[in-house]
Amino acid sequence: MHGRKRAITNALEFSLFGLPSFLIWFSVVIIPFIYGFWITFTDWNGLALHINFIGLENYRHILTDSAFLGAFVKTVIYALFTVILSNLVGFILALVVTSGIKGQNLFRTGFFTPNIIGGIILGYIWKLYFLIWPYKIR
Length: 138
Known about the structure:
By secondary structure, this protein is an all-alpha fold. Helices cover 80% and strands 0% of the residues. It is built from four helices and no strands. The chain has helices at 2-39, 57-63, 66-98, 104-136. The chain is extended, with a radius of gyration of 28 Å.
């Protein structure tokens, strides 16, 4: 029985420690999402004090608008093209970096150098800051 009581205590402690984070997440993400979804069923312009509930009228309007449908189709095509192309390029780069071909280290250097440069520059900035900093205090 002692083990079960400890498990309940651990679960309660976990819940209490997680409660503040959950409340912040709920108030910053979930409530605005629900409120924004509710606004789609009104004719509110964002400034008026009075809000009229119009139901699905906004959705009917947007689904019959040719400008929206054209933009939506272009967005879907762009998203599909981007996802497929980025995965394809990433897969090819991964194969080149791990395949054991001649010049593999050159490919690795070219591939990973841009990721390292930011950290190196930041290190030099901090080094410069700590070298100059003591002389600024008078």
